[in-house]
UniProtKB/TrEMBL annotation:
GO terms for molecular function: NADP binding. This is Phosphogluconate dehydrogenase. Residues 2-136 form the 6-phosphogluconate dehydrogenase NADP-binding domain. Residues 181-251 form the Phosphogluconate dehydrogenase NAD-binding putative C-terminal domain. It comes from the Bacteria.
Length: 263
């Protein structure tokens, strides 16, 4: 299978590397990359990377997703699938799907359901959109765990955002508890209590949530702003989401992480 990976950030590099290791012919494009991972061809641009590809994976970030699609479509074969793995709201995914349909190219909205570095190419995915069935079959052939969420573009994106209410809200709750506990010298005790409630994997989970919140606060704040917009569109109240955004904004500004910096 010939695969193009657009974007060689953290996730894109992992997907390109692991796909090549599984025998795929991988070409990548990223204007900021000086070199590609071993076994991956670095193309001079998006059009060169996607030309002749059976599958295009877009991992460029939500802000660049529309531009990446626009550059890729003219060079893609009608039989190819464009898979957008960037986190965005359902409306944006539907807009991208419409542009792909107008160009006669199959489109899939792909939600990445966990941090990619943890399980690498084994990270679970949720797929929706017109090319859902084709893409889930392609992923299965590559050993990538993917579940279909129907032919409607944006369905996978919406489900991911609803999941984020809990996952990012849980991280913010832990962060608030540990930060407050640190003021009375009880950060370790509170962290252990929380971890115990989360089962055998609790300690590792708490550590991942605290460290991930600090490391990716800017990106997660952007995601939660998308969550809030989606909840508004659904007419659903979102006080927990609002509080999570407040915490992520503070962390990204370097304000409150005294409870997690030295853990």
């Amino acid at each position: 299978m010939r695969i193009a990976v657009l974007g060689l950030g953290e996730a894109g590099t992992i997907y390109a590397t692991d796909l090549a290791a599984r025998g795929a012919h991988v070409a990548a494009a990223d204007p900021r990359a000086a070199a590609a991972p071993a076994g991956v061809a670095l193309a001079p641009g998006t059009a060169e990377a996607v030309r002749g590809a059976d599958l295009v994976l877009s991992l460029v970030g939500a802000r660049a997703a529309a531009a990446a699609l626009a550059e890729a479509l003219p060079a893609m074969a009608p039989s190819a699938v464009f898979a957008d793995l960037n986190t965005a709201g359902p409306e944006e995914k539907r807009r991208l799907a419409q542009r792909a349909a107008e160009a006669g190219v199959g489109f899939a909205d792909v939600a990445v359901l966990a941090p990619v570095p943890r399980a690498r190419i084994g990270t679970p995915l949720l797929v929706s959109g017109p090319a859902e069935a084709v893409l889930t079959a392609q992923f299965a052939a590559l050993g990538i765990p993917a579940t279909g969420a129907g032919p409607e573009p944006g369905a996978a994106a919406g489900l991911k955002l609803l999941r984020s209410v809990f996952m990012k809200g849980l991280a913010a709750t832990i962060l608030e508890a540990v930060t407050a506990a640190s003021t009375v010298g009880a950060a370790d005790w509170v962290t252990d209590q929380i971890a115990a409630e989360l089962g055998p994997g609790g300690p590792a989970l708490v550590q991942r949530l605290l460290e991930g919140t600090r490391r990716h606060a800017v990106r997660r704040e952007e995601e939660m702003l998308q969550v809030r917009s989606y909840l508004d569109a659904l007419g659903s109240a979102h006080p927990v989401t609002d509080a999570t955004i407040e915490w992520l904004h503070a962390v990204s500004a370097g304000a409150p992480p005294s409870g997690i910096q030295n853990r």
